[in-house]
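DM between two lab members

TW: hey, do you still have the SGNH hydrolase-type esterase domain-containing protein entry open?
JB: yeah, one sec
JB: this one, 159 aa:
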Amino acid sequence: MGVPPEEVFEKLKVIWDIALQQGCKVLALTVPEAALHGRIRERVDAQRNKLNDLIKGYKRDDFYVFDLHKAVPYYSLSDADKAKYWDDHLHFTPDGYDLIGNKVGMALVSILAREKTYHLSPAKRRRIFKDDDKLFEEEAGDPTAIDQGYVVVRRADLD
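TW: and the structure you got?
JB:
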């Protein structure tokens, strides 16, 4: 029934590789559940699980996976949430697509933040000046009185 998961995965890799070869990053999504019942559900679940395992196991530089299957589970939702997020047994409602967009967006931001942190240059050594520990006369007096002294900001005060 249908196309074998291995064949689907090979076709996905061809598409992903086009973007990766151009220096792009790829965020692949796993296949979510569908509202099926009986023997057909068993067959579809087995094929989907195999494809999802292949997707999650694929390793390349600049290739990331978001587990949509785990993030938007059909069978563990309440009936109200199923009606809110699923239009039929396979397609999502506008609220469902908003939910997916929010979850994928959060995953994408997390990946970008992780990459930015990873690529930060090492911290520079702080320069120390001879007057850093000096107490200026303007600092004496009543700290709540604005008319007494000056506002002095030293690097040491900011750390």
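TW: got it. The chain has a mean pLDDT of 85. The helical segments are 5-21, 38-57, 68-71, 79-85, 94-118, 155-158.
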